[in-house]
Amino acid sequence: xxxxxxxxxxxxxxxxxxxxxxxxxxxxxxxxxxxxxxxxxxxxxxxxxxxxxxxxxxxxxxxxxxxxxxxxxxxxxxxxxxxxxxxxxxxxxxxxxxxxxxxxxxxxxxxxxxxxxxxxxxxxxxxxxxxxxxxxxxxxxxxxxxxxxxxxxxxxxxxxxxxxxxxxxxxxxxxxxxxxxxxxxxxxxxxxxxxxxxxxxxxxxxxxxxxxxxxxxxxxxxxxxxxxxxxxxxxxx
Length: 237
Known about the structure:
- By secondary structure, the protein is mostly beta strands.
- The chain has strands at residues 2-6, 12-15, 19-23, 41-49, 54-60, 64-71, 73-78, 83-87, 90-95, 100-106, 113-120, 130-135, 146-150, 158-159, 165-171, 176-180, 186-194, 197-199, 202-204, 209-213, 217-222, 226-234.
């Protein structure tokens, strides 16, 4: 088994006033040759957007983009004609494919919006752009990982053009669960949203990240009440 740990305080950071963003991997003005990606996981941004502010219309192509709101309401508009609001308990996915433009704004004038912006390299290029959004509240479980993303259209959660599986876990102190790798050769990047957990003997805290590969099982135990996201991805781009 191989591992790498990225402590919360070692992430790249950019505060633009309207946007306060922490970058687990190199992004925009933050560049670290040792932190370009984890397998096909290219971007993991932890974003906070001020009331009424947001990202103006901008383009993407050939990238699978996943947004997971943690707090507040984020309004999305795109060139495919979608106008939606995503909020805590939702997951949004966009296959940029041949090219798409979109904007994202904090819909509220009186509170922040916080969300994870995740980019995954696709296994198919130049696909027709696609948008998807679901509520995961009915999928949620306590003290057990539950799937929110997969490569399969008919499976639980949203789907992307990649052999990747995302799971969330909400754990009470002292509770544990094992995660088994879905596809041989994949690795898992674990990101702690809140609390404290031990993963394969390593103690992790809020907003810490840990990559694990060359193993088939990952053991997670909550040292305190905790929420975390597991992102299983191919290790070769």
